[in-house]
Amino acid sequence: MGDDAVHELTAAYALDALEPEEARGYEAHLAGCERCREELASLQSAAGALAYAVEPARPPESLRGRILDAARAERPNVVPLHSWSRPLAAVAAVAACAAIGLAVWNVSLHDRLGRAQEALRGVPLTGAKGSVVVSGGSGALVVSDLAPAPAGKTYEAWVVKGGHASRAGTFAGGGRTIVIRLTHALPAGAVVAVTLERAGGVDQPTKTPFITSAPV
Amino acid sequence: MLNSGMSRVLAHLSDEAVVALCARSDEVALAELYDRFGGIAYGLARRVVRDDALAEDAVQEAFLAIWRGAARFLPERGKASTWILTLVHRRAVDLVRREQRRRTEALPEVEPAAATGAADDELWLRLERERVQAALAKLPDQQREAIELAYYGGFTQSELAERLGEPLGTIKSRMFTGLARLRELLEGEAWATTPFTS
Q1: Can you give the pLDDT of all 198 residues of chain B as single tens digits?
Q2: Which value does ipTM take for this structure?
């Protein structure tokens, strides 16, 4: 595509009227074209004004709580590790989590480093690269190369014990390696499972888990 | 659980400042953004997807995108309101394209969004709506048609060319000229535009 042809796409991009592949091409162009960035910012503000021509409508009361719950579930428990560049062995996961664990769990470096490392165990996963890292009665899920959850969906982790599944956190996936601190206690013999659920998560799994751990 | 009463402690802050708080994982800030933009976002999403449940999905996904992306919002690139409504529109368009349900169904009746807070918010929204509608009405018919079908109908430029039986270049040019003109009308400035030509 010639440069002029790409510039012409600015208005259609601002209106979200490009086919997906055209939009990606335009975004790639945008990164290196100051003229288009300026033009887009100004056309986008005109396109944004079109939203105000529509009469506002009152969303259902429940939507606010669902959004806030989903946001809360998502943010604090995911630690992306961009620097990791090799497949994850359970041993590497344990070593990494000993380090991350200090930040995630606020383990005091002062006198507990040795004990923390000693107490961390890795349990392998089926269905994805990674492991469950167990420390005392709690744990974290370490997963590599997990595609981002599709729009409108979220990954949800479960602690399964005695035929009962308990919610253990939702996460979006993506990135090279992510660490998800499980929000549910991890009793001995439990299995950690992951399903793909609708955004915001559900109280009980509705799908067959596509990632499962060995018993911890 | 957060409630509106709590979130309104941020009511005096600019949209941009509230987005900055969101970037620091402040849930009260996200609630404040929802209270400011939830009604306009839901109205826009319904207009595009023409289905209440899908509109809720679009709004939810957009606010989660705001939550995840707040740290990447750059105030020097544009207003927070534009950024937020762009995310809402994009999710709505994505959903309507995926569902292949489109634009001909009548909109179900819905309760208009009474302002969650002050009457002056409501008045401002009504004035803004009249202002944008008046600007749209001043566009030449073919430009307005291209913009409305794209933005509210969720049609891509290629689909529009086919639907209207016009060359793609004509559609692009109508969108560009129309949107640039709309910008001038809204800004109240008579800039001379120089549309890109190939």
Answers
A1: 444 444 467 878 899 999 998 988 888 999 999 999 999 999 999 999 999 999 999 999 999 999 999 988 988 888 999 999 999 999 999 999 887 655 455 555 555 555 455 566 778 888 889 999 999 999 999 999 999 999 999 999 999 999 999 999 999 999 999 999 999 999 874 343 434 433
A2: 0.84
Q: Distance between CA atoms of B179 and A27, rounded to whole angstroms?
A: 19
> Which of B147, B176, B177, B184 is the best residue to mutate to test the A interface, defined by the most A CB atoms within 10 Å of its own CB?
B176
Cβ contact, residue pair B40, A64, below 8 Å: no
Does the distance separating the beta carbons of B30 and A52 come in below 8 Å?
A: no
Whole-prediction pTM value?
0.62
Q: Which of B150, B173, B198 sits opposite A17 (nearest CB)?
A: B150
Longest dimension (CA), chain A: 64
Rounded to the nearest angstrom, the minimum Cα separation between A73 and chain B is 11
Q: Can you tell me the distance from the alpha carbon of B97 to that of A21, in angstroms, rounded to the nearest whole number? A: 14
- Please answer whether residues A131 and A88 qualify as being in contact, where contact means their C-beta atoms are separated by less than 8 angstroms: yes
